[in-house]
Input
Amino acid sequence: MAKAVRLDKFLADAGKGTRSEVKKFIQKGQVQVNGVPAKKPELKVDPEKDTVVLSGETVGAAPEFVYYLLNKPAGCVSATEDRNDRTVMEYVPSDRKGLFPVGRLDKDTEGLLLITDDGMLAHELLAPGKHVDKTYYAKVKGVVTKEDQEAVKNGVDIGEAKLTMPAKLEILNTDGEYSEILLTIREGKFHQVKRMMEAVGKTVVYLKRLSMGGLVLPEDLPIGQWRMLTTEERKIIKRL
Ligand code: URA
Output
């Protein structure tokens, strides 16, 4: 028999919001347990026996692992803790232990970041030799040319032992001073996009990750917001 847990913990673990958010749902009468409106966050529920409904939708028991897709804002670091800076963990519910970001985006980079407690998956996604396509949108200072596209396709020197792996550079537009590009890379070296653009004489002034494998940043997910991966998206990352 599953252990009884507090209603607010049950809802938060099921990804319905932070502990304080779900408490508000309870206070507003949006939560029913076995058909009866629940008034107290500390009410004990048995995930196997009790039916919890939030705003008309039945809430399942806490999954084994959670997968948050965060639209990372600039100004926070991709770490579980940091002495000086805000971390990405401050943007997702904190009720589960062992959550961490899968890989890193720079402090000033925005966009798609996966946060999970599934260590095995993260290990596999980040293993050396595991090359998952990652597409970035960047605004760069300078006019990006066909020659730059060709250079990036062949690999550029970013000061490592080897040239970078072949990558795809698309030019969206340029106004003669700045250019907007999409760059798809398969590796994940430190500051890789910025260093690749420096290698062709351009400076990245804005960077956002749009996709990783088949996982795409939802256009309607505001910066600083998260949502759970859908079942379909979970299948995509397990296949990577
Ligand atoms: N490349 C970079 O330069 N920075 C990032 O955050 C991600 C890729």
